[in-house]
Amino acid sequence: MYYRVSELPLAERPRERLVNMGAENLSDKELLAILLKTGTKDKDVSTLATELLTKYGSLQKLENATFRSLLEIKGIGKVKAIEVLGVIELGKRIWYRKEHNHSKKLINAKEIWENTKYLFASRNQECFYCLYFDNKQKLIEEKLLFMGTINRSIVHPREIFKEAYLLSASSIVCIHNHPSGDVQPSHEDIVFTKNIMEIGKIQGIPVVDHLIVTDYEYYSFYEKHHSCI
After folding, report:
1. Distance between CA 146 and CA 49 in Å, rounded?
2. Mind listing the pLDDT tens digit for each residue in 148-177?
3. Structure pTM?
4. Dihedral class, residue 221 (left if φ above 0, else alpha if ψ from -120 to 50, else beta)
5. In whole angstroms, what is the distance from residue 67 CA to residue 85 CA?
6. Distance (Å, whole) CA 33 – CA 216
7. What pLDDT shows up at residue 227?
C-alpha cells in the first residue's frame, strides 16, 4: 500500500496549500513531496521528501544528485529519479536563460567564462562546448559536442564546423573544463588548439580562442599568446 499526498490531512496536503497559498509559500519539503507524489508502505511521501533533502544536505546541493545516487534512497525508483533529475535540469535552464541573454555581446575571455559557468556546474567529467558567434561577436548558440572521461576530451573538427555552418556563425570559441581544478593546458590541449585554429583559417570561420575552465579560474589561449596561436 502506498501513501499519497492526497491521503494526508487536508491542512497538510502540499497541493492544496500551493493552490491556496501560492508555490512561493511552500517549504522545500512540500515542493519535493508534490514532485515525488507517493511514499511507500513504510513511509509517507513527506518522510521520503525529508530523506531526499537530508541525503544531499540542502536543496541547493540537490543539483549534485545523480541517477544512481537517487536510487539509493528507498522509495525512489527509476521513474521518480528521472522526474527529479528532469526538474533539476529545467530549473538550471530557467535560471541560466534568465541570467544570460544569448544576444549579449561577449568581447573577451573573462566575459565568456563568467557567462558559461552554468554549463560546467557540478560536472565531474570533461565537457567540450563550442560557442558560436555572429559577425558582431554576439552569441548565437552554445553546443555540447563531447562528454568524456574525467581526464580526457576529444572531439572531431568536422563536428565543430558542421554546427558553425548550420548556424551561419562567423567565429567560434572552444571551451572545456578540467575537473581536476588545474587550468593549465595539457600537451593534448595545445596540439588540439593549434590544429583546430589552423582548420578554422582554412574554413573561413576562425576559432578565436580556446578556454580551459574550472569553477574558480580559466586559461585563455588567446590571452596567454600561446605559441600555438
Report:
1. 34
2. 765 566 678 899 999 999 999 999 999 999
3. 0.60
4. alpha
5. 7
6. 35
7. 44
Residue 168 φ then ψ, to 5°: 55, 45
Question: CB of 208 within 8 A of CB of 222?
Answer: yes
With vertex at residue 152, the alpha carbon angle to CA 148 and CA 155, rounded to the nearest 5 degrees, is: 65
Joined together, the cell numbers standing for residue 60 give 541547493
Task: Report DSSP letters for 116-155, one per residue.
Answer: HGGGGTT--S-EEEEEEE-TTSBEEEEEEEEE-BTTB---
Q: Which residues pair with 209 in a beta bridge?
A: 173
Instruction: Please give the average per-residue pLDDT across 79-100, as a whole number.
Output: 78
Residue at grid coordinates 544570460: 100
Q: What is the residue type of 53? A: L
- Residues 161 and 27: their CA atoms lie apart, in Å, by 47
DSSP string, 33-81: HHHH-B--SSS-HHHHHHHHHHHHSSTGGGGG--HHHHHTSTT--HHHH
- The answer to whether residues 152 and 171 touch, using CB atoms and an 8 Å cutoff, is no
Which bin fits 129, alpha (ψ -120 to 50), beta or left (φ > 0)?
beta
Report the distance separating Cα 62 and Cα 82, nearest Å: 14
Give pLDDT, residue 226: 54
d(CA 13, CA 9): 6
